[in-house]
Design a protein that fits this description.
13 helices; globular; alpha/beta; eight-stranded mixed sheet
Length: 304
């Protein structure tokens, strides 16, 4: 029987004193106990640092990192540097987990040594309700390099529903200082886009245990319209290009569209059309590109 990996949880907090205890307590109460919970307070001005020291100062599994405000990406990087677990989960301080979240993740990571990145569904709580997820059931996405590089597809979930093997997390968050100012919020884009371009195998596992809280101070939730505007899309494209340059991607990678598509467990028709389009962009002779595109479309049709 495969041994479950150890987990480190990084909780990032900025002026969420009213919520942060639910996040930390929920992480500590997991049926698959984490090795540690790293709480990064990013320069809060609402009394969070004193509150956290008073509540968790004598809790051996909690490590508090309180410092100046640097934004979400900087908090991710500080938290990751303090972790020791084999798998790292990130948890926003205004969200919370049900007790079996890590147990379900641990079972998957133990069974699938080839999977590097797991994301879950989220339940909207607070000012909104409902469930958001990639699919209705667990899905092996395989590799998502080209779908992300060409179309900036976001194969992931909000921060609190992400889990990465430690080595992948370190590579993804190895970003130069100039990126810090650009990703003060929505830094889960770094985790999601970076993992795709760096070649991670991704898996969607709906655990039903991630509560994403909607309230008046959500950074990303209330900025969704702006995220569709040019400046935000340009910022994401620059981030993707940075990772792509690190991996030395060039036009010849487009000829691998069919091979990457084959790593998908149950691709839908929209994804088949997307990858057929990628195949047609490659530098191979037109007849070879067309052959690959038709092969992709045939597989997509079988899944309809």
């Amino acid at each position: 029987m495969s041994v479950a990996p150890t987990f480190s949880v990084v909780v990032t907090n900025y002026n969420y004193r009213d919520f942060v205890a639910e996040a930390v307590d929920g992480a500590l109460a997991q049926t698959h106990a984490p090795l540690e919970v790293i709480v990064v307070d990013d320069g809060s001005t609402d009394g969070s640092p004193d509150y956290l020291r008073g509540r968790y100062g004598n809790e051996p599994r909690v490590k508090l990192l309180c410092g100046e405000n640097g934004g979400q990406l900087a908090a991710f990087q500080r938290g990751l540097a303090a972790t020791r677990g084999e798998v790292v989960c990130f948890l926003d301080a205004d969200d919370r987990w049900g007790p079996d979240h890590l147990r379900q993740l641990a079972a998957l990571f133990a069974a699938r040594k080839d999977v590097d990145f797991v994301f879950s569904d989220v339940r909207l709580v607070g000012n909104e309700s409902g469930v958001q997820g990639y699919a209705k059931e667990a899905t092996d996405l395989g590799h998502t390099v080209l779908g992300t590089w060409v179309f900036a597809r976001w194969y992931g979930a909000p921060t609190s529903a992400l889990a990465l093997r430690r080595g992948l997390a370190e590579r993804v968050l190895d970003l130069p200082p100039e990126f810090t100012a650009n990703w003060r919020i929505s830094a889960d884009n770094c985790l999601v886009f970076g993992a795709s371009i760096l070649g991670a195998r991704k898996y969607f596992l709906p655990t039903g245990n991630v509560d994403y809280r909607i309230h008046g101070r959500n950074g990303w939730w209330h900025e969704q319209a702006r995220m569709r505007e040019f400046p935000a899309q340009f910022r994401s494209r620059c981030l993707i290009n940075f990772y792509a340059q690190r991996m030395h991607l060039d036009a010849h990678a487009l000829d691998l569209a069919r091979a990457e598509f084959k790593t998908r467990e149950r691709p839908d028709w929209a994804e088949a059309r997307r990858y057929a389009g990628i195949a047609m962009r490659g530098p191979s002779p037109w007849w070879k590109r067309a052959e690959r595109a038709l092969s992709i479309l045939r597989r997509g049709l079988r899944g309809r």
